[in-house]
Amino acid sequence: MSKKINAKMGKGLLLSTIMVLSFNLVACLETTANTVKVAPESVKQKSVAVASIRKTIYTDQELWVAGLKEKQLKQPAFAFVNTDPSLPNVLLMGGAISVGYTHAVREELADIANVYRIPANGGDTKSALKNLQKWLAGTQWEGIPFNWGMNDLKRKKKTESDATTPHRVVLDQYASNLDQIVTQLEKSAESLIWASTTIIPDSAKSRISGDEILYNRAALEVMENHPTVKIDDLFSLSKDHPGDRKPKSVSFSKEGQKRQGVQVASSIKSALDK
Questions:
Q1: Domain boundary, last residue among 35, 54, 73
Q2: Residue 246 and residue 234: Cα distance in Å, rounded?
Q3: Which domain holds residue 89?
């Protein structure tokens, strides 16, 4: 009798053990299956995130065109750049003077670099600080040639150019703003090139000849605190070629824009080679 009971108990214990092992095996398989299911979703989310980072105003033509004014759509400087992934990426920053020489820089650096420019007239340093991160577009650039100054030293009243009319951005504030700009640019570019502000003729409206010298001096003092920034002396270039300027204007003829573009391109080449 006891042998039968022991046999039954043994069978029951064996059956219980098998059931426990089976349960654990099923649970393990379910956990593994769930893990396998989650992994592709994580990879998918990561891929979407990477794709969204790479899609910027500079790489997506629809985004680029949508951000431009109607007048800009007709200007070669604001043409969409078809990226060559084998080339370094350069971003031109600055006001109307840089708009003028952008096309010439692109021609000079064809097959050497992808040359982009910000989708705007860069305005003064106050405007630049507001828009800088948007213009940088979360991108690491191989080179950024930049200038601000011509719009900072502009007098607030368009009809007056006497020394009593205040500048848009006073000299001390200009220097402070420029220092903040350079500090941010250093985090987004391997090479920075500062282009000095071009010459102001005596006949220019809303600006006074000589102010550009003061603002350029302040800018150079800022650059001394950022010794890796290279200097492109467009001021001397414009001074040495007075015939390049348009009459009674700080703007330049096509010949002047071409000359400036050649010099800016040369500065970029030197920076990229190092």
A1: 54
A2: 16
A3: 57-273
Two tokens at 272?
């990229």
In this structure, the chain runs to a length of 274
* Cβ atoms of 181 and 229 closer than 8 Å: no
On whether both 65 and 40 belong to a single domain, the answer is: no
75 and 45 inside one domain: no
* Whole-structure pTM value: 0.79
42 and 73 share a domain?
no
* Ordered per-residue pLDDT tens for the chain, 274 residues: 444 434 444 444 444 444 444 444 444 434 444 443 333 443 333 333 333 335 899 999 999 999 999 999 999 999 999 999 999 999 999 999 999 999 999 999 999 999 999 999 999 999 999 999 999 999 999 999 999 999 999 998 755 557 788 999 999 999 999 999 999 999 999 999 999 999 999 888 889 999 999 999 999 999 999 999 999 999 999 999 999 999 889 999 999 999 999 999 999 999 999 7
Same structural domain, 253 and 163: yes
Beta strand pairing call for 230-232 and 189-195: parallel
Query: Could you tell me if 37 and 11 lie in one domain?
Result: yes
